[in-house]
Structure formats: C-alpha cells, structure tokens
Write a structure and sequence with these properties.
The chain is built from 16 helices and 17 strands. By secondary structure, it is of the alpha/beta class.
C-alpha cells in the first residue's frame, strides 16, 4: 500500500512539473521528438539567413563562392543556360583555375524539361574549364523509365562551412520574372553550423551514385565553422539566437526513406496548437497532409494557406484552387497571390518553428522525388517568415464563398474537379 501511494505521489509531482505529460509540451518540442523518431538528426549551433528573392540569393551566394578556398559543391534540379547561369559557370571556372575543387550535379529530366537546357556543347565547355559536372539519370530511350524519382534538391555547399538551399534553381527569371505571369517570387536561405554536415552528406551520397567517386579527406572536415572569420560581406543573421538555432535536416530518398517528408509535414501540422501558415506553389496535397490540415482545423487551429493564382504548370492553378476551396469551406484562410508566381515552399507553426526547402505539397515531391527541407526550431526565423507572409497578403486576394465563383469560371471549376483525380500522379 505504501508503494502504491508513493507511486501516485511521484506521478502527480512529475505531471505538475511538466516532466511527463507530453501533450503539454510546445509544438516545436513535440515535432522535434517525432522527427528524431524518424531518424532525423538535429544540431543546435546554427545560423540561418533568409534570402527573400533572387537578387539576394545570387548576390550573397556569388560573393561567398568568390571567397571559397577549398571546394564548392552544387546540386540542382536544373541550371538554365541563360545570363545568370553563364555568370555562375564563369565564376566556377575561375575558382577551379585557382585550385578550388568544383563539383556540380543536375537532374537529367530537370535539364530536358528546361526551356533553355545545358546541351552537350555547353557541358563540354564547362568541363574543359575545370568544373566537374554530371547529370543524374539522363533521359534516354525508353524515356518512360526516367519519369520518376527525380533529383529536385537545391544545394550549394562552400568549404563545408555554409550551405545555400531552398526553392530556387539557377535561372534569370528569379531576377526578372517571365512574360506569362510576371515576377517569380521565391525563398532561399544560407545556413551555417553543424547542419551543413547533413547537406554535405547528402551531396556526397548523390555524387558517389552519379560520378562513382567517394569524396573524402581532411579538406572536407573543416572543424572551424566560424564563417565570419573566413568570409566577409555576406548578409548576417541578425536574430538574438544566431549561432544557437536548432535545425533538423529531412532528406527524402526514394525507396530508402520514401515517406519521411510527408510524415514530417504531418507531424508538424498534427502538433500545431495555435497556428499553421503555408506557402506552396503546387498544393495538390497528398492524403496524409490533407487529413492533417483537416484535423488541425477541427481542433481549432488557425490554418492560413497562400497559393499563387498563376503557375508555370498549366493544370496546377485549377487543381490548387479546387483544393483551396475545400480547405476554405472547412475554415481555413486562403490567399491567392496575384503579383506573379509564388514558388516558395515554407511552413510556419505556432510562431515557434518553420520549414524551408525544396519539397512541394504534391505527390511528385512527397511520393517520388529526392527532396530536402530544413526544420528550423527557432521563433525568430519563424517570425521573419511570418512577416514576409503578412507582407505578401497585401498582394493577395482573400478567398470567400462570395468571390469563389467570380474568381473561377464554371469551366475552370470543372477542370479543377477533373484534374484532382490525377493528384496522386502529379
């Protein structure tokens, strides 16, 4: 009897002090625990610098590449053969001539589907300049064999001390837009700290797969990650938490970790206690994520979703509008961004944590492609993204039951309903 009373007292004390009762933990702690259970590794000594448009990304990244001493590793869905691509490869060639090791990967399908692809003569010229460059899974006959499992990541690692990652490839439309929809709105970031090691591991694994070369040696283990002592002129992390940010890197590898990205989003949304905000260009929504959003709305979490009214994929606006209308009817606040194409892929939860990366909220990204997202457990970075979200609301149309039919003609509404049956494949 005495033991039983002691046990009851202990449980009551633990509950009162918050040691147990996980349901009372904040959403970032619960989500970190869920991601760690999936095998995601977290580090806690990181800096994050948000790069809000193409000008900020390329200015900052090119400045860092100019100062590289040891190596530059690039992994992109595609490099467009245009003005910004040419500037990048001239810069990389100059660094290669200085003795910096430059390795680049691009996706074969991403290049083939590009309206200005890198052709054989371009690739030969790049290789002659000293840059090692390979295509992942080049598209050859029979072409259908190459339809799935594309490398959609966007990663640039410099000297092992910083990584640029997010939603942008290499193209001049990130600077000047496109005539069919105007400005191209996107997000990128620079990360410094031990999280860079995870991105370097991702690149090395893919390089070994594509180039059949194992990258190793002391030059690839920098030890000192004090970027401010090694590089100058880069945009700083101005948060009070700079150097102390907790980051987990979620890496989707088809056939190895095929469900990890969708489970990461699902866990983040299921653990939200107050507020979820999302910006995504192709929200056709896989079942797990859609159901998580419905559950969040049902338990009173405010869900705000921003999607572009324009797109570079013809059927995407119709399917996205169909999905957003369904969410709106369940209580979500939906905003259609009007000033160009919003290609950002971000989520903010409870002003406590956020994710930025390459993954779209469609089956293509969450069921087939290689993707990488950083889950950043930091309120300052999250609130910076919230500020961007608030600013972009001013350029958006708020969806209501009254303006739904004005925004979408009967034909467009029908096409959205019809196309949504293809959601598991696009």
């Amino acid at each position: 009897m005495r033991s039983f009373v002691y046990l009851v007292v202990c449980i009551a004390w633990l509950g009162a002090t918050g040691v147990v009762r996980a349901q009372e933990l904040p959403s970032d702690s619960l989500t970190r625990r869920a991601l760690e259970d999936m095998g995601v590794r977290f580090s806690c000594n990181n800096r994050v610098v948000l790069l809000e448009d193409g000008f900020e990304k390329f200015d900052d990244m090119f400045d860092a590449i100019r100062q590289a001493r040891h190596f530059v590793h690039l992994e992109y869905f595609n490099f467009r053969n245009d003005s910004i691509g040419n500037v990048l490869f001239r810069l990389l060639a100059r660094k290669a001539q200085e003795g910096v090791k430059v390795r680049a990967l691009f996706d074969g399908f991403g290049n083939s589907s590009n309206d200005q692809p890198l052709k054989k003569e371009h690739l030969e010229h790049i290789r002659q300049s000293g840059v090692e460059i390979y295509a992942f899974d080049p598209v050859v006959f029979p072409w259908i064999n190459h339809a799935y499992h594309r490398d959609h990541r966007k990663i640039v690692i410099i000297d092992g001390v910083m990584v640029y990652t997010g939603g942008m490839n290499v193209a001049d439309y990130y600077l000047h837009g496109r005539p069919e929809f105007g400005a191209w709105r996107d997000m990128h970031m620079r990360i410094e700290g031990d999280a860079v090691t995870e991105y370097e591991r991702i690149f090395r694994t893919m390089w070994a797969k594509v180039a059949d070369e194992v990258i190793d040696g002391p030059a690839y283990y920098p030890g000192d990650r004090n970027v401010s002592a090694l590089f100058t002129g880069l945009k700083p992390d101005t948060c009070a938490t700079a150097g102390e940010k907790v980051i987990g890197v979620v890496d989707r590898i088809p056939l190895v970790q095929p469900k990890i990205m969708r489970k990461a989003y699902q866990a983040a949304i299921d653990n939200a206690q107050h507020h979820v905000r999302l910006i995504n260009p192709y929200p056709t929504l896989v079942r797990n994520v859609k159901k998580a959003l419905y559950r969040a709305l049902k338990r009173g979490v405010r869900v705000e979703f921003m999607v572009s009214s324009k797109s570079d994929i013809p059927m995407s606006p119709d399917v996205s509008a169909y999905r957003m209308h369904k969410l709106m009817k369940r209580g979500a606040d939906v905003y259609f961004y009007e000033e160009g194409f919003h290609h950002s892929k971000v989520m903010m939860v409870d002003s406590a944590f956020c994710t930025v990366g390459s993954a779209n909220l469609n089956s293509r990204s969450l069921s087939f492609d290689y993707e990488v997202n950083a889950f950043i457990m930091d309120s300052c970075t999250t609130n910076c993204l919230n500020g961007i979200f608030e600013q972009d609301k001013l350029s958006s149309t708020y969806l209501t039951s009254d303006n739904w039919k004005k925004m979408r003609s009967p034909k467009r509404r029908f096409m959205g309903w019809l196309y949504h049956f293809l959601s598991p494949f696009i």
